Give the backbone structure.
Amino acid sequence: MRYLKLGDAFIVRLMTGEEIHASLNELATLERIDVAGVEGIGAVYDAVLGYFDRANREYLKKSVPGEMEILSLSGNLSIKDSQPFAHLHVVLGGRNCEAVAGHLFEAKTGATCEIIVRPLKGFVKRTLDPATGLYLLDI
Ligand code: ZN
């Protein structure tokens, strides 16, 4: 991971093989980011996407084989269990320009990932919401 601070924001470049969540959580730790907006493009492989089945209170997971373009990565950083937590959603594009999308559980960087992290002033943590079974922003 390489990154550069530009004003209040960070521009991040991930290298082939680097895991997106782990890298963003590392950036948050290094730069003491408690809450931020995240957006990005690039390419990934070995992605695992999810869809939250609210009725059954569980994520349905789907592995996406092969290399995919990141058409849109968006999400946020906050604090969960006293640790940085990246909540990310993604739209991925394949060889035939087909798209798949969902909550991003994991993905490794393909050729590159170019991510912008915009820290916000303040502190936001996630706590378990009994109604959904999810760790939601505690605001
Ligand atoms: Zn999500």
